[in-house]
Amino acid sequence: xxxxxxxxxxxxxxxxxxxxxxxxxxxxxxxxxxxxxxxxxxxxxxxxxxxxxxxxxxxxxxxxxxxxxxxxxxxxxxxxxxxxxxxxxxxxxxxxxxxxxxxxxxxxxxxxxxxxxxxxxxxxxxxxxxxxxxxxxxxxxxxxxxxxxxxxxxxxxxxxxxxxxxxxxxxxxxxxxxxxxxxxxxxxxxxxxxxxxxxxxxxxxxxxxxxxxxxxxxxxxxxxxxxxxxxxxxxxxxxxxxxxxxxxxxxxxxxxxxxxxxxxxxxxxxxxxxxxxxxxxxxxxxxxxxxxxxxxxxxxxxxxxxxxxxxxxxxxxxxxxxxxxxxxxxxxxxxxxxxxxxxxxxxxxxxxxxxxxxxxxxxxxxxxxxxxxxxxxxxxxxxxxxxxxxxxxxxxxxxxxxxxxxxxxxxxxxxxxxxxxxxxx
Length: 425
Fold this sequence. Notes:
Number of helices: 14
CATH superfamily of the largest domain: Type I PLP-dependent aspartate aminotransferase-like (Major domain)
Low-confidence stretches: 1-47
Distance between the termini: 62 Å
Number of domains: 3
Largest sheet: 7 strands, mixed
CATH class of the largest domain: Alpha Beta
Structural class: alpha/beta
């Protein structure tokens, strides 16, 4: 009933707009494009600021020029578009080895119950993660991937006129989510491909509400050290939250190393640590992540959390994967071996790269980087061109299985020869 009423109102609005859009020759002015369910819209971007002609709606002005995050193309899509039988996807920093066998078994056991809504608070996962991390359950929150946790923090702690502070280039969702909420975005350039925390400290202002630190940073794979983080936190006002996005924590952390575990800074009260099951745990398709902070911060984030935001399959798989330390150690070992394989291969090709603490590399392909990435795609190798990140001479390459890394290196060399390109300047 409501759908029919909306359709009738839409058609009425269309007739109203048409009555004002005839030219002197009697023809319609702006061309119209057919939308789903019979609605019409003026040709051009649907959802721009100002009048939404199909229904007479107005949309948030912040959305007018807001960029849309474009994920790496799925394997099946590339196969269809290019008519390929085999595709190697090294574009999205996924775990190429798949989930833990324990997680797969948990999924099989959970499947018959998907007719039921999930546990809204991730009860069993919360309880086990609390024990594993050594933090009370009230200090944990779960999201549909760690992306949702970023959005929750912004919605809970910043209002129009406020601002976030981060680096550039870094994970694009910080900027996109902030702009969608009408926030200002301060971005401090990386220094030698790393977050420049001292420069960021100097940019903290009275309207700065959240500071986002991707550590290791996506897309560079670099990290800031214990010493740098501690110095930086001493300069942050207590009413400003520091959000550590540690999606690649398990790849980077080594006992006794200088990569920081931001959980040890939780006593400061203004720190959020976010991690995910999408990367080393191999559950990217299920979308589940978590954050740790003070009970007060988590309580406020829960107020903007959607009900049933983490599905039951994700909860079951994450619970099983959490304790499979043997599998995680194997994935780390295989990833390090693949990283060494890529280092050697790139050096033989004369291609520069940024040493990485994560499961991907930032590779310098020179001024013809976009053409090289396109050539790789036609050969069935999907990597991520970094032009949209402000790195037009670079590509980001996920560390794959041994045979995938070999195929990438082989096709990269062939593409460079065809184009007449090297990795220099």
